[in-house]
Design goal:
- By secondary structure, the chain is α+β, with helices and mostly antiparallel strands.
- It folds into 2 domains: 32 residues, no CATH class; 182 residues, Beta-Lactamase, CATH 3.30.450.40.
- The protein is built from 7 helices and 10 strands.
- The protein has a 6-stranded antiparallel β-sheet. Strands 1-2 form a two-stranded antiparallel sheet.
- Strand 1 and strand 2 form a beta hairpin.
- It is globular, with a radius of gyration of 17 Å.
- The C terminus is likely disordered.
- It comes from Streptosporangium brasiliense.
- InterPro entries: GAF-like_dom_sf (IPR029016), HTH_MetabolicPath_Reg (IPR050707), Tscrpt_reg_IclR_C (IPR014757).
- Keywords: DNA-binding.
- One of its GO terms (molecular function) is DNA binding.
Length: 217
C-alpha cells in the first residue's frame, strides 16, 4: 500500500531513517481540495453518473500545471482510466485537463504550457498550442470536451467545466468510456456530464482561493 501511495506522491521514504513520511502530493491534494464542500457536493453527482452509465466519474482541479483528481466514484470498469484520488494527468491531452483550460486564450495556453513538449498522450492528442487552442475553441462553444483517444488509447473522456457564480472555471467533472462500449450514447453522456457540472457549479460559487478570476494553480 505504501508503494502505491509513493507512486502517487502521497508518501515518500524518510531519508534519515527507514520509515515513511507524508509526500508532496498529499499537500498538493489538500491544497487543491481546500474546499471540502465542493468534493462533498460532487459525490452524489458522481454516483449518479456512474449509476446511469456504469463508467467511472471523477472531479479534477488544476494544480501546478496538471489536472489533479480530488474525488472519484469508481465502477467495475475503472482499471482502464487514471481515476484515483491524488492522480495527476496532463492538461493538454486529457478531457479533464482541457475542460479546465477552456477559457484560456491561445496566448495564455502558450504561457502556461511553454515547457510542455507535447510528447505522449493518445493517438489523437494535439501536438502544439495552436492545435489545442483550435480544439478548445470548438469545445468551448459546445460547453463540453469530448476527448476521443487523446490520452488513453480507445477511451473517450467526457468532461465539463465547473464554474462558480462569476463564471470562472474552478474544476472539471468527467466520465470515461471505452470506445467499444460507447455505441450511440455520446450525445447523452456529454449532456449528462454538462448537467452535473452545472449543478455542482452552484456549490462552487462560494469556493475561495482564486486569483484574477481563475483557480489558484
Amino acid at each position: 500500500m505504501l508503494k502505491d501511495l509513493a507512486a502517487l506522491g502521497l508518501a515518500e521514504r524518510d531519508g534519515q531513517g527507514r520509515g515513511w513520511r507524508v509526500g508532496p502530493g498529499y499537500f498538493a491534494l489538500a491544497a487543491a481540495a481546500g474546499d471540502a464542500g465542493l468534493a462533498a457536493a460532487a459525490r452524489p453527482l458522481l454516483r449518479g453518473l456512474v449509476t446511469r452509465w456504469h463508467e467511472p466519474a471523477w472531479l479534477s482541479v488544476r494544480s501546478e500545471g496538471v489536472a489533479l483528481t480530488v474525488e472519484v466514484e469508481s465502477s467495475h470498469w475503472s482499471s482502464y482510466v487514471v481515476a484515483a484520488p491524488g492522480a495527476v494527468t496532463p492538461l493538454w491531452c486529457t478531457g479533464p485537463g482541457r475542460a479546465l483550460l477552456l477559457d484560456h486564450s491561445e496566448q495564455e495556453l502558450a504561457e502556461l504550457l511553454k515547457a510542455v513538449e507535447f510528447v505522449g498522450g493518445g493517438p489523437l492528442a494535439v501536438r502544439n498550442v495552436r492545435a489545442l487552442a483550435v480544439r478548445n475553441a470548438a469545445d468551448r462553444a459546445a460547453g463540453v470536451v469530448v476527448a476521443d483517444r487523446e490520452f488513453e488509447h480507445d477511451v473517450v473522456d467526457f468532461s465539463a467545466p465547473v464554474r462558480d457564480r462569476p463564471g470562472a472555471i474552478v474544476a472539471s467533472l468527467s466520465v470515461a468510456v471505452p470506445r467499444f462500449r460507447l455505441g450511440d450514447r455520446s450525445g447523452e453522456i456529454a449532456a449528462s456530464v454538462v448537467e452535473a457540472a452545472k449543478k455542482l457549479g452552484v456549490r462552487a460559487a462560494s469556493r475561495g482561493g482564486r486569483r484574477d478570476g481563475r483557480p489558484a494553480p
